[in-house]
């Protein structure tokens, strides 16, 4: 009886690891990130991030102060965690005219957080190696700007 239970449990475990069949309507992509670390004070990084976003003609559409809110709920000493979302409607229109599926890349997002005495600044990049040459060119330009924004925020 114990042997049968072990076999059934093993089969269930193996089945749970199987890759589900892919739907023809689902496109899987590898998400690439750009990240830098700095010892610059956290508040300065956030201030520089806001400046860099504006310098690139983007507007901040959201700012989640996750670490601050958690500390406000009684978790003293909880580290800083922030997400900043931003967009440029002219660029948004351009990419959506290339393909409506590009909505999944919007808005642009940069996360900042503290880890081991450093501030991490990270953003996800748009894929540049797809089947659509116009989208690839757009992504390359956008990725250049995203990297510049991150670098400016983290620069000492």
UniProtKB/TrEMBL annotation:
<dbReference type="InterPro" id="IPR035923">
    <property type="entry name" value="TT1751-like_sf"/>
</dbReference>
<protein>
    <submittedName>
        <fullName>DUF302 domain-containing protein</fullName>
    </submittedName>
</protein>
<feature type="signal peptide">
    <location>
        <begin position="1"/>
        <end position="20"/>
    </location>
</feature>
<keyword id="KW-0732">Signal</keyword>
<dbReference type="Pfam" id="PF03625">
    <property type="entry name" value="DUF302"/>
</dbReference>
<feature type="domain" description="DUF302">
    <location>
        <begin position="72"/>
        <end position="123"/>
    </location>
</feature>
<dbReference type="InterPro" id="IPR005180">
    <property type="entry name" value="DUF302"/>
</dbReference>
């Amino acid at each position: 009886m114990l042997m049968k239970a072990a076999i059934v449990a093993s089969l269930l475990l193996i089945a749970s690891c199987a890759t589900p069949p892919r739907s023809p309507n689902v496109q899987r992509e590898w998400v690439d990130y750009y990240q830098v670390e700095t010892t610059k004070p956290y508040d300065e990084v956030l201030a520089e991030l806001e400046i860099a976003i504006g310098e690139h003609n983007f507007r901040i559409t959201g700012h989640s102060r996750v670490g601050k809110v958690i500390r406000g709920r009684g978790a003293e000493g909880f580290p800083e965690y922030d997400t900043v979302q931003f967009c440029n409607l002219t660029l948004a229109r351009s990419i959506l005219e290339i393909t409506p599926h590009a909505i999944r890349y919007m808005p642009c997002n940069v996360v900042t957080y503290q880890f081991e005495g450093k501030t991490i600044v990270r953003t996800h990049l748009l894929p540049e190696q797809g089947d659509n040459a116009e989208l690839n060119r757009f992504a390359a330009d956008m990725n250049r700007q995203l990297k510049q924004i991150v670098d400016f925020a983290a620069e000492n």
